[in-house]
Design a protein that fits this description.
The chain is mostly helical. The chain has three helices and no strands. The longest helix has 10 residues. The relative contact order is 0.18.
Length: about 45
């Protein structure tokens, strides 16, 4: 009995800090999912 390995899900591309700022206005669901997946302190520190 052969087993077939399940492929690992591909990591999604991260949204840039500037893209996150714009994304909050136009696509908040995707933006907040990206922030939860990989938080970053770059944008808050730049202002």
């Amino acid at each position: 009995m052969a087993t077939t390995p399940i492929p690992a899900p591909e990591p999604q591309a991260s949204i840039s800090p500037f893209g996150r700022i714009i994304g909050v206005l136009f696509s908040p669901k995707n933006t907040f999912e990206d922030i939860a997946r990989k938080p970053s302190w770059v944008a808050p520190l730049s202002y």
